Amino acid sequence: MTTLLNSLGASLGILAAGLIFVYADWTGQRDLAWRAALGVLGAVVFGGVLPFLLIGLVPSLAAYDSRSVGRGAGLLLLLVVNIAGTLVAFLPWLIAGNWLSVLRRTG
After folding, report:
1. Which long-range contacts (CB under 8 A, 24 or more apart) does 12-15 make?
2. TM segments (predicted)?
């Protein structure tokens, strides 16, 4: 499920970047369009790299064994990583919405 959510989040984030670029270009703000699209794409990259950074920083995630009952802390940590990954999947849309309000104020 995490892989599907990350893939869906990346696809929707790229869609958000394209839509915010098209909207800003349509309103005649090409300089802001490029900055907005790069900001949203940066959030997509951050969301894609974050799970790998967490696994690299917390080695117990890579060595997690679901058959071991005594590893409650590892299970809790894995739960926190999945929740954080889900929240980060919506970060590009939050940034695109922020840019939309900036574009509407300046245009």
Report:
1. 12/89, 12/92, 12/93, 13/40, 13/41, 13/43, 13/44, 13/47, 13/89, 13/91, 13/92, 13/93, 14/41, 14/44
2. 6-24, 36-62, 74-95
Q: Which of 64, 13, 60 is nearest to 39 (CA)?
A: 13
The interaxial angle of helices 72-89 and 30-57, nearest 10 deg, is: 170
Please indicate, yes or no, whether the overall pTM of this predicted structure exceeds 0.90.
no
Q: List Cα–Cα distances, 62 to 53, 78, 83, in angstroms.
A: 11, 10, 17
